[in-house]
């Protein structure tokens, strides 16, 4: 007897929108015509790209700050053109990168408890694209490695710690790049391009490892993401404008492993993938539903699980990393759905009767610690994500201050000279360090007093402006 219904612990996953008082209201979500998610979340903050006059801006809200967001709430507003894509650093919950129409990529360090005043000074500005930058994605396992792709059809991989462009992939894409995705250990990337091709690229060798032309026949945008087993999952359109989901083996991309036809809507399907459970969630821009599928090794490989449907269409979608979920409620995914004027969290749960920790739902997941430093990765090393257990819920550690070091050739020479110095000099070194600590204290005090001075002057300026406006009236 063949079982009619396939056994799966995710068959009864159900989605639920949170109550109104837990939504983020009165947010003017960006109207830019670009197919990015417009929202990025991590266990501390939710960031949303918003409408901004005279430049580009995004909001960064602490997760607990639900309710109505005041119009005067501070924003991150350093770009001179609309922001097209944002992404949180996987290794530091206070660092976020943004790409914009002004051709730059900026990296920001958000204060521990969120913004108090608007932020217009990034930690580092990465300049190298000649057209707008629409795709930003951090390396999954190496610290401070950031990839950006622009409408100049180039991909640049940066060492954010030094602010340098280390790898530039030109002449690989003849047209606009729709998306870029790293594989699990960050040794390869896959891209979807307007020329209807899917490419798997080794960025350090600067070569295309595998390529499939006309992965989807339709003319509308595609998406391609890596799965944890190294296969590639793509979403696109058929010639008849039906939306498709396909699975590819990168060793042989002649024919797809499987293709699923879905419906004839025209919104681009944004795939969100959970490598721990092998569930992929498809959120169509302009759709009012989230479909989810389980990927397995046996045919038909892609198994439809269910659809979460609402009345309102989504303008964008944020996806919470696994370590930000509530394991006590058997929550396996959380989305942040953007409406025209608000952001609404949607919780996906597996119904279980037991209150105990469900280790089959929560295998060890990628933690926030990087496996490699940027320099090691550029030299050719690879590292798998360092797993953490969610058994007692994830407790965020203290994030290191993010610093950008501009390389100076003179520094190298100085260090070499000091190394050659005699042991006598070395033994005398602890005293200067005490002096330098005192000096540092002094400098920090000075900075604090300057900050206080600036804030008092700001208040004074505001008062004067108010008085001026009264006089003008």
TrEMBL record:
Pfam families: DUF1899, WD40, WD40_4
Domain DUF1899 stretches: 3-67
Polar residues compositional bias, start-end: 417-433
A GO molecular-function descriptor: actin filament binding
Annotated stretches, region: Disordered: 413-435
Coiled coil region boundaries: 440-467
Keywords per UniProt: Coiled coil, Repeat, WD repeat
InterPro entries to which the protein is assigned, alphabetical: Coronin, DUF1899, WD40/YVTN_repeat-like_dom_sf, WD40_repeat_CS, WD40_repeat_dom_sf, WD40_rpt
WD repeat boundaries on the chain: 76-118, 126-168
One GO term of the biological process aspect: actin filament organization
PROSITE patterns: WD_REPEATS_1 (PS00678), WD_REPEATS_2 (PS50082), WD_REPEATS_REGION (PS50294)
Keyword Coiled coil: yes
Family from the record: Belongs to the WD repeat coronin family.
Protein's name according to its UniProt entry: Coronin
């Amino acid at each position: 007897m063949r079982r009619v219904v396939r056994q799966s612990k995710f068959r009864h996953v159900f989605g639920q929108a949170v109550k109104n008082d837990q939504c983020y209201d009165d947010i003017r979500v960006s109207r830019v015509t670009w197919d990015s998610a417009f929202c990025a979340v991590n266990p501390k903050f939710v960031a949303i790209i918003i409408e901004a006059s005279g430049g580009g801006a995004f909001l960064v809200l602490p997760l607990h700050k639900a309710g109505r967001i005041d119009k005067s709430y501070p924003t991150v507003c350093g770009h001179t053109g609309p922001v097209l894509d944002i992404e949180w650093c996987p290794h530091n919950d206070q660092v976020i990168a943004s790409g914009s129409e002004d051709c730059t990529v900026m990296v920001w360090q958000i204060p521990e408890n969120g913004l108090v005043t608007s932020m217009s000074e990034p930690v580092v500005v990465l300049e190298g694209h000649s057209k707008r930058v629409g795709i930003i994605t951090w390396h999954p396992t190496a610290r401070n490695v950031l990839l950006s792709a622009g409408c100049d059809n180039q991909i640049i991989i940066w060492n954010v710690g030094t602010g340098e462009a280390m790898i530039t992939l030109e002449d690989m894409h003849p047209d606009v790049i729709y998306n870029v995705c790293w594989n699990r250990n960050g040794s390869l990337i896959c891209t979807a391009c307007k020329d209807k091709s899917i490419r798997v690229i080794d960025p350090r060798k600067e070569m295309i490892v595998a390529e499939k032309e006309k992965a989807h026949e339709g003319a509308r945008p595609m998406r391609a993401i890596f799965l944890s087993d190294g296969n590639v999952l793509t979403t696109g359109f058929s010639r008849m404008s039906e939306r498709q989901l396909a699975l590819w083996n990168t060793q042989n991309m002649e024919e797809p492993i499987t293709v699923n036809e879905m419906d004839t809507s025209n919104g681009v399907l944004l795939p969100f993938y959970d490598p721990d459970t092998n569930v992929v969630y498809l959120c169509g821009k302009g759709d009012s539903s989230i479909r989810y599928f389980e990927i397995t090794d046996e045919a038909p490989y892609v198994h439809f699980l269910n659809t979460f449907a609402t009345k309102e269409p989504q303008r964008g979608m944020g996806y919470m990393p696994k370590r930000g979920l509530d394991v006590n409620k058997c929550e396996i995914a959380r989305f942040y759905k953007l409406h025209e004027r608000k952001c609404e969290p949607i919780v996906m749960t597996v119904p279980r009767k037991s209150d105990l920790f469900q280790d089959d739902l929560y295998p060890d997941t990628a933690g926030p610690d990087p496996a490699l430093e940027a320099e090691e990765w550029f030299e050719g090393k690879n590292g798998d994500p360092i797993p953490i257990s969610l058994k007692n819920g994830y407790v965020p550690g203290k994030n290191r201050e993010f610093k950008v070091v501009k390389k100076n050739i003179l520094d190298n020479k100085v260090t070499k000279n000091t190394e050659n110095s005699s042991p006598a000099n070395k033994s005398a070194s602890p005293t200067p360090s005490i002096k330098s600590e005192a000096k540092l204290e002094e400098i920090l005090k000075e900075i604090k007093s300057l900050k206080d001075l600036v804030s008092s002057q700001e208040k004074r300026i505001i008062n004067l402006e108010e008085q001026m406006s009264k006089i003008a009236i």
